[in-house]
Amino acid sequence: MQVEEALNITKDSNAESSNWKEKEVELLEENKKSNIKIESQAIELEKLKHYVKLLKDAIYGKKSEKLDSEAIRQLGLLFNEAEGHGEDEQEELPIEETTSIKEHKRKKGRKKLPKDLPRKQIIYDLEEEEKKCSCGCQLSKIGEEKSEQLDFIPAKLQVIEHVRYKYACKGCEDTVKCAKLPNKPLPKANATAGLLAHIMVSKYTDHLPLYRQADIFKRHGIDLPRSTLCNWINASGKLIKPIIGLLIKDIIASDYVASDETTVRVLDNEGSTSYMWVHLSGERNKRAIVYDYQDNRRGENAETFLQDFKGYHQADAYSGYNVVHNRKEITWIACWAHARRKYIEITKTIKEPGIAHKMVKYIGLLYKIEREALDKKLDPGGIKKLREEKAIPILGVIKKLVDEVKDATPPQSILGKAIRYTSNNWQGLNNYLLDGRLRIDNNDSERSIKPFAVGRKNWMFCATTKGAEASANIYSIIETCKTNNINPYNYLKYLLNHIHDYSDPEELVNLLPYNIDKKLLSD
User: Fold this and answer.
1) How far apart are CA 124 and CA 393, in angstroms?
2) Where in the chain are the domains?
3) What is the pTM of this model?
Protein backbone atom coordinates (compact mmCIF):
# COMPACT_ATOMS: atom_id res chain seq x y z
CA MET A 1 0.00 0.00 0.00
CA GLN A 2 2.80 2.39 0.94
CA VAL A 3 4.60 1.44 -2.27
CA GLU A 4 1.50 2.27 -4.35
CA GLU A 5 1.13 5.63 -2.63
CA ALA A 6 4.79 6.41 -3.27
CA LEU A 7 4.37 5.48 -6.94
CA ASN A 8 1.30 7.70 -7.20
CA ILE A 9 3.15 10.59 -5.58
CA THR A 10 6.03 10.08 -8.01
CA LYS A 11 3.64 10.05 -10.98
CA ASP A 12 1.96 13.22 -9.77
CA SER A 13 5.36 14.84 -9.27
CA ASN A 14 6.50 13.86 -12.76
CA ALA A 15 3.24 15.11 -14.27
CA GLU A 16 3.54 18.39 -12.41
CA SER A 17 7.17 18.72 -13.50
CA SER A 18 6.15 18.08 -17.11
CA ASN A 19 3.42 20.70 -16.84
CA TRP A 20 5.93 23.23 -15.51
CA LYS A 21 8.28 22.52 -18.39
CA GLU A 22 5.48 22.99 -20.91
CA LYS A 23 4.47 26.20 -19.18
CA GLU A 24 8.08 27.37 -19.20
CA VAL A 25 8.36 26.73 -22.93
CA GLU A 26 5.06 28.52 -23.46
CA LEU A 27 6.20 31.52 -21.40
CA LEU A 28 9.53 31.69 -23.21
CA GLU A 29 7.71 31.67 -26.54
CA GLU A 30 5.36 34.42 -25.39
CA ASN A 31 8.34 36.41 -24.11
CA LYS A 32 10.07 36.01 -27.47
CA LYS A 33 6.97 37.25 -29.29
CA SER A 34 6.66 40.16 -26.89
CA ASN A 35 10.29 41.16 -27.45
CA ILE A 36 9.79 41.04 -31.22
CA LYS A 37 6.65 43.15 -30.86
CA ILE A 38 8.43 45.65 -28.61
CA GLU A 39 11.33 45.89 -31.05
CA SER A 40 8.93 46.40 -33.94
CA GLN A 41 7.02 49.07 -32.02
CA ALA A 42 10.30 50.80 -31.12
CA ILE A 43 11.24 50.92 -34.81
CA GLU A 44 7.78 52.19 -35.72
CA LEU A 45 8.03 54.85 -33.00
CA GLU A 46 11.37 56.04 -34.37
CA LYS A 47 9.89 56.14 -37.87
CA LEU A 48 6.94 58.22 -36.67
CA LYS A 49 9.27 60.61 -34.82
CA HIS A 50 11.33 60.87 -38.00
CA TYR A 51 8.30 61.70 -40.13
CA VAL A 52 7.04 64.26 -37.60
CA LYS A 53 10.42 65.97 -37.67
CA LEU A 54 10.45 65.95 -41.48
CA LEU A 55 6.95 67.42 -41.49
CA LYS A 56 8.06 70.22 -39.19
CA ASP A 57 11.09 70.85 -41.39
CA ALA A 58 8.86 70.94 -44.46
CA ILE A 59 6.65 73.59 -42.82
CA TYR A 60 9.18 75.66 -40.91
CA GLY A 61 12.68 74.55 -41.94
CA LYS A 62 15.05 74.91 -44.86
CA LYS A 63 14.23 73.06 -48.08
CA SER A 64 17.82 72.57 -49.23
CA GLU A 65 19.38 69.11 -49.23
CA LYS A 66 22.86 70.55 -48.65
CA LEU A 67 24.47 70.28 -45.23
CA ASP A 68 27.25 72.46 -43.90
CA SER A 69 29.88 71.13 -41.48
CA GLU A 70 28.30 72.79 -38.44
CA ALA A 71 24.92 71.23 -39.21
CA ILE A 72 26.55 67.81 -39.52
CA ARG A 73 28.23 68.19 -36.10
CA GLN A 74 24.87 68.97 -34.54
CA LEU A 75 23.18 65.86 -35.95
CA GLY A 76 23.11 62.49 -34.17
CA LEU A 77 22.12 58.82 -34.12
CA LEU A 78 18.79 57.44 -35.18
CA PHE A 79 19.53 53.77 -34.59
CA ASN A 80 22.50 53.23 -32.25
CA GLU A 81 23.10 49.58 -33.09
CA ALA A 82 23.30 50.26 -36.82
CA GLU A 83 24.90 53.70 -36.87
CA GLY A 84 27.72 52.60 -34.60
CA HIS A 85 28.51 49.48 -36.59
CA GLY A 86 31.96 49.48 -38.12
CA GLU A 87 32.81 52.94 -36.74
CA ASP A 88 36.42 52.08 -35.94
CA GLU A 89 37.10 49.88 -38.95
CA GLN A 90 35.53 52.15 -41.59
CA GLU A 91 37.89 52.81 -44.47
CA GLU A 92 38.59 56.47 -45.13
CA LEU A 93 38.64 57.82 -48.65
CA PRO A 94 42.10 58.31 -50.12
CA ILE A 95 41.20 61.76 -51.43
CA GLU A 96 40.74 65.24 -50.11
CA GLU A 97 37.26 65.50 -48.53
CA THR A 98 37.00 69.24 -48.07
CA THR A 99 35.07 71.25 -50.60
CA SER A 100 36.26 74.69 -51.58
CA ILE A 101 33.75 77.18 -52.90
CA LYS A 102 34.86 79.92 -55.24
CA GLU A 103 34.26 83.43 -54.03
CA HIS A 104 31.36 85.10 -55.80
CA LYS A 105 32.25 88.50 -57.20
CA ARG A 106 29.14 90.59 -57.53
CA LYS A 107 29.06 93.63 -59.74
CA LYS A 108 27.98 96.74 -57.95
CA GLY A 109 24.98 98.70 -59.14
CA ARG A 110 21.93 97.65 -61.10
CA LYS A 111 22.08 95.90 -64.46
CA LYS A 112 21.71 97.98 -67.59
CA LEU A 113 18.35 97.84 -69.28
CA PRO A 114 18.26 95.93 -72.60
CA LYS A 115 19.18 98.06 -75.61
CA ASP A 116 16.43 96.57 -77.78
CA LEU A 117 13.63 97.89 -75.56
CA PRO A 118 11.59 100.70 -77.12
CA ARG A 119 12.68 104.08 -75.75
CA LYS A 120 10.77 107.29 -75.31
CA GLN A 121 12.86 110.39 -74.72
CA ILE A 122 11.70 113.23 -72.54
CA ILE A 123 13.86 116.34 -73.07
CA TYR A 124 14.47 118.72 -70.17
CA ASP A 125 15.88 122.10 -71.17
CA LEU A 126 16.52 125.35 -69.38
CA GLU A 127 14.20 128.26 -69.84
CA GLU A 128 15.57 130.98 -72.18
CA GLU A 129 16.22 133.38 -69.32
CA GLU A 130 18.14 130.63 -67.48
CA LYS A 131 20.51 130.23 -70.42
CA LYS A 132 22.15 133.58 -69.60
CA CYS A 133 25.11 133.72 -67.23
CA SER A 134 25.18 136.21 -64.37
CA CYS A 135 28.14 137.83 -66.15
CA GLY A 136 25.86 138.59 -69.08
CA CYS A 137 27.19 135.98 -71.56
CA GLN A 138 24.95 133.43 -73.33
CA LEU A 139 25.40 129.82 -72.08
CA SER A 140 26.52 127.25 -74.68
CA LYS A 141 25.42 123.61 -74.71
CA ILE A 142 28.39 121.42 -73.84
CA GLY A 143 26.71 118.00 -73.42
CA GLU A 144 23.87 116.18 -71.77
CA GLU A 145 23.16 113.84 -68.88
CA LYS A 146 20.99 110.77 -69.30
CA SER A 147 19.18 108.60 -66.78
CA GLU A 148 16.76 105.74 -67.40
CA GLN A 149 13.57 104.53 -65.79
CA LEU A 150 11.79 101.30 -66.64
CA ASP A 151 8.13 101.86 -67.46
CA PHE A 152 5.29 99.36 -67.82
CA ILE A 153 2.53 99.67 -70.39
CA PRO A 154 -0.45 97.46 -69.43
CA ALA A 155 -1.54 94.88 -71.97
CA LYS A 156 -4.25 96.08 -74.29
CA LEU A 157 -6.80 94.32 -76.42
CA GLN A 158 -7.60 95.25 -79.99
CA VAL A 159 -9.99 94.02 -82.65
CA ILE A 160 -8.58 92.83 -85.96
CA GLU A 161 -11.09 93.55 -88.72
CA HIS A 162 -10.71 91.35 -91.77
CA VAL A 163 -12.18 93.32 -94.68
CA ARG A 164 -12.48 91.38 -97.94
CA TYR A 165 -13.44 93.27 -101.08
CA LYS A 166 -16.02 91.60 -103.30
CA TYR A 167 -16.13 91.94 -107.09
CA ALA A 168 -18.93 91.13 -109.52
CA CYS A 169 -19.30 91.10 -113.29
CA LYS A 170 -21.84 93.66 -114.44
CA GLY A 171 -21.90 92.15 -117.90
CA CYS A 172 -23.17 88.63 -117.25
CA GLU A 173 -24.08 89.26 -113.62
CA ASP A 174 -23.15 85.64 -112.85
CA THR A 175 -19.61 86.01 -111.45
CA VAL A 176 -18.87 87.15 -107.91
CA LYS A 177 -15.39 86.94 -106.41
CA CYS A 178 -14.12 87.78 -102.95
CA ALA A 179 -10.57 87.91 -101.57
CA LYS A 180 -9.61 84.75 -99.70
CA LEU A 181 -9.58 84.87 -95.91
CA PRO A 182 -6.37 83.51 -94.31
CA ASN A 183 -6.74 80.34 -92.22
CA LYS A 184 -7.77 81.05 -88.65
CA PRO A 185 -6.09 78.98 -85.91
CA LEU A 186 -9.50 77.82 -84.68
CA PRO A 187 -12.08 78.17 -87.46
CA LYS A 188 -15.08 78.80 -85.18
CA ALA A 189 -13.29 81.03 -82.67
CA ASN A 190 -12.87 84.79 -82.83
CA ALA A 191 -9.46 84.59 -81.13
CA THR A 192 -6.21 85.36 -82.92
CA ALA A 193 -3.10 83.23 -82.55
CA GLY A 194 -1.66 85.95 -80.32
CA LEU A 195 -4.58 85.77 -77.89
CA LEU A 196 -4.53 81.97 -77.81
CA ALA A 197 -0.78 81.95 -77.19
CA HIS A 198 -1.21 84.49 -74.39
CA ILE A 199 -3.90 82.37 -72.68
CA MET A 200 -1.78 79.21 -72.90
CA VAL A 201 1.41 80.84 -71.63
CA SER A 202 -0.52 82.55 -68.83
CA LYS A 203 -1.89 79.22 -67.63
CA TYR A 204 0.98 76.81 -68.27
CA THR A 205 3.97 79.10 -67.66
CA ASP A 206 2.63 81.76 -65.30
CA HIS A 207 0.21 79.32 -63.61
CA LEU A 208 -2.85 81.57 -63.94
CA PRO A 209 -6.05 79.47 -63.84
CA LEU A 210 -8.59 80.25 -66.52
CA TYR A 211 -11.11 81.71 -64.09
CA ARG A 212 -8.52 84.31 -63.03
CA GLN A 213 -7.77 85.11 -66.65
CA ALA A 214 -11.50 85.58 -67.25
CA ASP A 215 -11.52 88.12 -64.39
CA ILE A 216 -8.54 89.94 -65.91
CA PHE A 217 -10.27 90.19 -69.30
CA LYS A 218 -13.37 91.50 -67.54
CA ARG A 219 -11.29 94.36 -66.09
CA HIS A 220 -10.44 95.23 -69.69
CA GLY A 221 -14.15 95.32 -70.50
CA ILE A 222 -14.20 91.99 -72.38
CA ASP A 223 -16.50 89.17 -71.34
CA LEU A 224 -14.67 85.89 -72.01
CA PRO A 225 -16.30 83.15 -69.89
CA ARG A 226 -14.13 80.44 -68.44
CA SER A 227 -16.03 77.87 -70.53
CA THR A 228 -14.96 79.67 -73.71
CA LEU A 229 -11.33 79.73 -72.58
CA CYS A 230 -11.53 76.01 -71.79
CA ASN A 231 -12.85 75.26 -75.27
CA TRP A 232 -10.05 77.30 -76.84
CA ILE A 233 -7.41 75.50 -74.76
CA ASN A 234 -8.77 72.06 -75.68
CA ALA A 235 -9.00 72.93 -79.38
CA SER A 236 -5.48 74.42 -79.40
CA GLY A 237 -4.07 71.34 -77.67
CA LYS A 238 -5.64 69.15 -80.34
CA LEU A 239 -4.38 71.42 -83.13
CA ILE A 240 -0.73 71.12 -82.11
CA LYS A 241 -0.85 67.33 -81.68
CA PRO A 242 1.11 66.67 -84.93
CA ILE A 243 4.05 68.59 -83.42
CA ILE A 244 3.90 66.32 -80.35
CA GLY A 245 4.15 63.28 -82.60
CA LEU A 246 7.36 64.64 -84.10
CA LEU A 247 8.80 65.38 -80.66
CA ILE A 248 8.07 61.79 -79.60
CA LYS A 249 9.74 60.53 -82.76
CA ASP A 250 12.91 62.50 -81.96
CA ILE A 251 12.94 61.25 -78.37
CA ILE A 252 12.64 57.61 -79.42
CA ALA A 253 15.30 58.08 -82.11
CA SER A 254 17.85 59.21 -79.51
CA ASP A 255 19.82 56.69 -77.46
CA TYR A 256 19.40 58.45 -74.10
CA VAL A 257 15.99 59.16 -72.53
CA ALA A 258 14.96 60.26 -69.04
CA SER A 259 11.49 59.82 -67.50
CA ASP A 260 9.46 60.80 -64.46
CA GLU A 261 5.81 60.97 -63.44
CA THR A 262 3.49 62.85 -61.06
CA THR A 263 -0.16 62.75 -60.11
CA VAL A 264 -2.92 64.86 -61.65
CA ARG A 265 -6.52 65.08 -60.55
CA VAL A 266 -9.05 64.61 -63.37
CA LEU A 267 -12.67 65.07 -62.34
CA ASP A 268 -14.17 62.62 -64.83
CA ASN A 269 -11.70 59.93 -63.74
CA GLU A 270 -12.45 59.86 -60.01
CA GLY A 271 -12.23 56.07 -59.95
CA SER A 272 -8.43 56.09 -59.95
CA THR A 273 -5.45 58.41 -59.59
CA SER A 274 -4.34 59.85 -62.90
CA TYR A 275 -0.73 60.56 -63.80
CA MET A 276 1.22 62.91 -66.00
CA TRP A 277 4.33 61.18 -67.31
CA VAL A 278 7.22 63.16 -68.76
CA HIS A 279 9.84 61.80 -71.17
CA LEU A 280 12.74 63.80 -72.55
CA SER A 281 15.80 63.26 -74.67
CA GLY A 282 18.74 62.93 -72.30
CA GLU A 283 21.19 65.11 -74.20
CA ARG A 284 20.54 68.80 -73.66
CA ASN A 285 21.28 69.89 -77.22
CA LYS A 286 18.02 70.11 -79.20
CA ARG A 287 16.15 68.53 -76.32
CA ALA A 288 12.57 67.37 -76.83
CA ILE A 289 10.23 67.12 -73.84
CA VAL A 290 6.88 65.33 -74.01
CA TYR A 291 4.18 65.07 -71.35
CA ASP A 292 2.00 61.98 -71.61
CA TYR A 293 -1.31 61.87 -69.73
CA GLN A 294 -2.49 58.46 -68.48
CA ASP A 295 -5.28 57.51 -66.10
CA ASN A 296 -3.02 55.21 -64.03
CA ARG A 297 0.60 54.58 -63.02
CA ARG A 298 0.97 51.13 -64.50
CA GLY A 299 4.29 50.32 -66.09
CA GLU A 300 2.62 49.53 -69.40
CA ASN A 301 2.37 53.28 -70.01
CA ALA A 302 6.15 53.69 -70.03
CA GLU A 303 6.48 50.44 -71.97
CA THR A 304 4.11 51.68 -74.68
CA PHE A 305 5.80 55.07 -74.99
CA LEU A 306 9.30 53.53 -75.14
CA GLN A 307 8.44 50.38 -77.10
CA ASP A 308 10.75 51.29 -80.01
CA PHE A 309 13.49 52.90 -77.90
CA LYS A 310 17.00 51.45 -77.58
CA GLY A 311 19.76 52.85 -75.40
CA TYR A 312 20.13 54.37 -71.93
CA HIS A 313 17.00 55.07 -69.90
CA GLN A 314 17.33 57.20 -66.76
CA ALA A 315 14.62 57.01 -64.12
CA ASP A 316 14.09 56.40 -60.42
CA ALA A 317 13.62 52.91 -59.00
CA TYR A 318 9.84 52.82 -59.45
CA SER A 319 8.94 49.21 -60.24
CA GLY A 320 6.69 50.29 -63.11
CA TYR A 321 9.82 50.89 -65.21
CA ASN A 322 11.07 47.32 -64.67
CA VAL A 323 9.33 46.02 -67.77
CA VAL A 324 11.29 48.61 -69.77
CA HIS A 325 14.61 48.05 -68.01
CA ASN A 326 14.37 44.26 -68.38
CA ARG A 327 14.71 44.59 -72.15
CA LYS A 328 18.23 43.67 -73.24
CA GLU A 329 18.50 46.67 -75.57
CA ILE A 330 17.94 49.13 -72.70
CA THR A 331 20.39 50.01 -69.92
CA TRP A 332 18.91 51.54 -66.77
CA ILE A 333 20.64 54.59 -65.29
CA ALA A 334 19.50 55.11 -61.70
CA CYS A 335 19.40 58.38 -59.77
CA TRP A 336 21.93 59.22 -57.06
CA ALA A 337 19.79 62.17 -55.98
CA HIS A 338 17.06 59.73 -54.90
CA ALA A 339 19.56 57.61 -52.98
CA ARG A 340 21.13 60.65 -51.29
CA ARG A 341 17.73 62.12 -50.38
CA LYS A 342 16.92 59.11 -48.20
CA TYR A 343 20.08 59.64 -46.11
CA ILE A 344 19.55 63.40 -45.92
CA GLU A 345 16.09 62.82 -44.45
CA ILE A 346 17.75 60.80 -41.67
CA THR A 347 20.34 63.45 -40.95
CA LYS A 348 17.57 65.99 -40.43
CA THR A 349 16.28 64.10 -37.38
CA ILE A 350 19.40 62.82 -35.59
CA LYS A 351 21.95 64.46 -33.29
CA GLU A 352 25.38 62.90 -33.84
CA PRO A 353 27.16 61.84 -37.03
CA GLY A 354 26.80 58.22 -38.11
CA ILE A 355 26.32 56.03 -41.16
CA ALA A 356 23.79 58.32 -42.84
CA HIS A 357 26.12 61.30 -42.53
CA LYS A 358 28.98 59.35 -44.07
CA MET A 359 26.77 58.37 -46.98
CA VAL A 360 25.76 61.98 -47.53
CA LYS A 361 29.41 63.01 -47.45
CA TYR A 362 30.57 60.29 -49.85
CA ILE A 363 27.75 60.91 -52.33
CA GLY A 364 28.58 64.60 -52.09
CA LEU A 365 32.10 63.76 -53.25
CA LEU A 366 30.63 62.07 -56.33
CA TYR A 367 28.77 65.29 -57.10
CA LYS A 368 31.97 67.27 -56.56
CA ILE A 369 33.51 65.30 -59.43
CA GLU A 370 30.55 66.24 -61.64
CA ARG A 371 31.06 69.92 -60.78
CA GLU A 372 34.74 69.61 -61.62
CA ALA A 373 33.87 68.18 -65.04
CA LEU A 374 31.44 71.04 -65.60
CA ASP A 375 33.95 73.70 -64.52
CA LYS A 376 36.58 72.24 -66.85
CA LYS A 377 34.02 72.01 -69.70
CA LEU A 378 35.10 68.44 -70.44
CA ASP A 379 33.71 66.57 -73.42
CA PRO A 380 31.98 63.18 -72.82
CA GLY A 381 35.28 61.32 -73.24
CA GLY A 382 36.99 63.54 -70.67
CA ILE A 383 34.08 63.16 -68.25
CA LYS A 384 34.19 59.35 -68.51
CA LYS A 385 37.94 59.35 -67.86
CA LEU A 386 37.60 61.69 -64.86
CA ARG A 387 34.88 59.49 -63.35
CA GLU A 388 36.96 56.35 -63.81
CA GLU A 389 39.87 58.03 -62.07
CA LYS A 390 38.05 59.66 -59.14
CA ALA A 391 34.51 58.27 -58.80
CA ILE A 392 35.24 54.53 -58.85
CA PRO A 393 37.34 54.61 -55.61
CA ILE A 394 34.54 56.52 -53.84
CA LEU A 395 31.94 54.05 -55.10
CA GLY A 396 34.08 51.22 -53.73
CA VAL A 397 34.06 52.78 -50.26
CA ILE A 398 30.28 53.34 -50.43
CA LYS A 399 29.70 49.71 -51.45
CA LYS A 400 31.86 48.41 -48.62
CA LEU A 401 29.99 50.54 -46.07
CA VAL A 402 26.60 49.42 -47.40
CA ASP A 403 27.59 45.73 -47.27
CA GLU A 404 28.90 46.07 -43.69
CA VAL A 405 25.78 47.65 -42.20
CA LYS A 406 23.04 46.06 -44.33
CA ASP A 407 22.52 42.94 -42.23
CA ALA A 408 22.83 44.81 -38.92
CA THR A 409 20.15 47.36 -39.78
CA PRO A 410 16.43 46.60 -39.20
CA PRO A 411 14.91 46.30 -42.72
CA GLN A 412 11.85 48.41 -41.86
CA SER A 413 13.82 51.19 -40.19
CA ILE A 414 14.42 54.47 -42.01
CA LEU A 415 18.13 53.75 -42.29
CA GLY A 416 17.45 50.15 -43.30
CA LYS A 417 15.27 51.29 -46.19
CA ALA A 418 17.90 53.79 -47.30
CA ILE A 419 20.68 51.18 -47.17
CA ARG A 420 18.60 48.62 -49.06
CA TYR A 421 17.61 51.17 -51.70
CA THR A 422 21.31 51.75 -52.37
CA SER A 423 22.14 48.04 -52.28
CA ASN A 424 19.22 46.82 -54.39
CA ASN A 425 19.83 49.45 -57.10
CA TRP A 426 23.63 49.36 -57.01
CA GLN A 427 24.14 48.37 -60.64
CA GLY A 428 21.82 51.10 -61.89
CA LEU A 429 23.53 53.65 -59.67
CA ASN A 430 26.90 52.73 -61.18
CA ASN A 431 25.78 52.69 -64.81
CA TYR A 432 26.30 56.44 -65.24
CA LEU A 433 30.01 55.56 -65.52
CA LEU A 434 29.37 53.87 -68.88
CA ASP A 435 29.17 57.06 -70.96
CA GLY A 436 30.30 60.62 -70.32
CA ARG A 437 26.99 61.92 -71.69
CA LEU A 438 25.05 60.27 -68.88
CA ARG A 439 24.27 62.23 -65.76
CA ILE A 440 24.62 61.19 -62.16
CA ASP A 441 20.95 61.79 -61.39
CA ASN A 442 17.52 62.19 -62.92
CA ASN A 443 17.18 65.84 -61.90
CA ASP A 444 16.61 66.99 -65.50
CA SER A 445 13.33 65.11 -65.76
CA GLU A 446 12.38 66.17 -62.21
CA ARG A 447 12.95 69.79 -63.22
CA SER A 448 10.78 69.20 -66.28
CA ILE A 449 7.93 67.83 -64.18
CA LYS A 450 8.21 70.66 -61.64
CA PRO A 451 6.41 73.35 -63.73
CA PHE A 452 3.43 71.01 -63.97
CA ALA A 453 3.51 70.39 -60.20
CA VAL A 454 3.70 74.14 -59.49
CA GLY A 455 0.84 74.87 -61.89
CA ARG A 456 -1.22 72.09 -60.33
CA LYS A 457 -1.20 73.96 -57.01
CA ASN A 458 -2.96 76.86 -58.74
CA TRP A 459 -5.45 75.25 -61.11
CA MET A 460 -5.69 72.11 -58.89
CA PHE A 461 -7.37 69.77 -61.40
CA CYS A 462 -8.38 69.06 -64.99
CA ALA A 463 -12.11 68.81 -65.54
CA THR A 464 -11.96 66.17 -68.28
CA THR A 465 -9.65 63.63 -69.83
CA LYS A 466 -9.73 65.69 -73.04
CA GLY A 467 -8.55 68.72 -71.07
CA ALA A 468 -5.73 66.72 -69.44
CA GLU A 469 -4.53 65.52 -72.86
CA ALA A 470 -4.64 69.07 -74.24
CA SER A 471 -2.68 70.29 -71.23
CA ALA A 472 -0.08 67.58 -71.82
CA ASN A 473 0.38 68.73 -75.43
CA ILE A 474 0.69 72.40 -74.50
CA TYR A 475 3.11 71.67 -71.65
CA SER A 476 5.23 69.64 -74.08
CA ILE A 477 5.52 72.59 -76.46
CA ILE A 478 6.17 75.20 -73.76
CA GLU A 479 8.79 73.19 -71.86
CA THR A 480 10.56 72.21 -75.09
CA CYS A 481 10.67 75.91 -75.99
CA LYS A 482 12.07 76.87 -72.60
CA THR A 483 14.81 74.25 -72.61
CA ASN A 484 15.89 75.43 -76.10
CA ASN A 485 15.83 79.14 -75.14
CA ILE A 486 12.79 79.93 -77.28
CA ASN A 487 10.15 82.41 -76.11
CA PRO A 488 7.03 80.20 -75.70
CA TYR A 489 4.61 83.02 -76.55
CA ASN A 490 6.40 83.96 -79.79
CA TYR A 491 6.67 80.32 -80.81
CA LEU A 492 3.03 79.40 -80.09
CA LYS A 493 1.80 82.52 -81.89
CA TYR A 494 3.80 81.64 -85.01
CA LEU A 495 2.90 77.94 -84.82
CA LEU A 496 -0.84 78.56 -84.53
CA ASN A 497 -0.71 81.01 -87.42
CA HIS A 498 1.12 78.66 -89.79
CA ILE A 499 0.33 75.07 -88.78
CA HIS A 500 -2.54 75.00 -91.30
CA ASP A 501 -0.09 75.78 -94.08
CA TYR A 502 1.26 72.22 -93.93
CA SER A 503 -0.84 69.34 -95.27
CA ASP A 504 1.78 66.67 -94.50
CA PRO A 505 2.59 66.36 -90.76
CA GLU A 506 6.15 65.27 -91.60
CA GLU A 507 6.77 68.68 -93.15
CA LEU A 508 6.22 70.26 -89.74
CA VAL A 509 9.67 69.08 -88.66
CA ASN A 510 11.06 72.50 -89.60
CA LEU A 511 8.63 74.09 -87.14
CA LEU A 512 9.93 72.17 -84.11
CA PRO A 513 11.22 74.59 -81.44
CA TYR A 514 14.86 73.50 -81.89
CA ASN A 515 14.65 73.53 -85.70
CA ILE A 516 12.72 76.72 -86.40
CA ASP A 517 14.46 79.81 -87.75
CA LYS A 518 14.44 82.20 -84.79
CA LYS A 519 14.15 85.16 -87.15
CA LEU A 520 10.59 84.04 -87.89
CA LEU A 521 9.70 84.55 -84.23
CA SER A 522 10.94 88.12 -83.95
CA ASP A 523 7.77 89.78 -85.27
Assistant:
1) 70
2) 2-56, 246-447
3) 0.76
